[in-house]
Structure formats: structure tokens, C-alpha cells
Amino acid sequence: MSSPYTFRVPGGRGTVRRARRRVVGVARARRYPLDEELMCCLELLASELITNAVQHGGAPNEVSVSWTGARVRVEVSDVGPAAPEPLPAGPEDEHGRGLVIVDALADAWGRRRHRLGKVTWFELGPGARPMDARGY
To answer: How far apart are CA 84 and CA 86, in angstroms?
Structure first.
């Protein structure tokens, strides 16, 4: 596994947008072998986890990006005590689809507790196209 690139995510306006772009920027700068479709998927999945951390987890939030040797791994930590779970969302609901999207598109994802709260992570790598492979 490559050494992770880690950065803090403060609260406030534009936080999620800047953080998700930074994740993609790190993947490009480190030349992770992801095509444009996977880079878009990386941005979407990072956005979902970072949004959850900012909205529900409380500060401080931290994002870590690394290469496992086969996949890019993004970890988002926060101080919230609740374990994130995919929830069914109705057609009129404005929220509640983030982890369902992560579950559908990531090669793997999960969560674990850490000393100050929790870490939610996903992995995404070259190979089968996430959307094609799962029929979405």
C-alpha cells in the first residue's frame, strides 16, 4: 500500500466540493491507473462519504487517499458515534441514497471505529466497470 495522502476537511460552505476535487487531484498526481469513468466514480463516491461526515459526523473530519496495489482507497474519518448504514430512500426523499450509491459502485467499502469516532472507507480500481458490472 502506498503511503496515504491525508488532509483535514473543515466545515463550512464549499467544503465537500473542494475535498472531493482534492481526492481526484491526488489520484491524478500520483498517477493511479484509473480511466476517466473511474475518476468520475471516485469523485462521486468521495463526495458521498465526505458529505456524510460533514453533515452527520461532526468535526474534525479527515480524508486519506492511498493505493493498495490494485485499487485506490479513500478513508473519511469523523467523530460521530453512529455507524453509517445504507438506508432505503423513497422517490420523494432528498437524502438517504449516499451509501446505497457507494455500495453499488465501489469494489469494496466498510466502516470501523477509531479512537475518536469512526472511519468509513471505499476502494475502487481498474478492471470491470462499476456501473456495467452491477447492471446499473
So the answer is: 7
> pTM value?
0.85
C-alpha cell at 4: 496515504
Can you give the pLDDT of all 136 residues of the chain as single tens digits? 779 999 999 877 788 999 999 999 999 999 999 999 999 999 999 999 999 888 877 777 899 999 999 999 999 998 887 766 666 655 565 555 678 889 989 999 999 988 888 999 999 999 754 444 443 3
Task: For the chain, list the domains and their CATH numbers.
Answer: 5-134 (3.30.565.10)
The one-character DSSP state at 126 is: S
Residue ranges with strand state E in the chain: 5-9, 61-67, 72-78, 108-114, 117-124
Angle of the 36-52 helix axis to the 15-29 helix axis, nearest 10: 140
Backbone angles phi, psi at 16, to 5 degrees: -65, -45
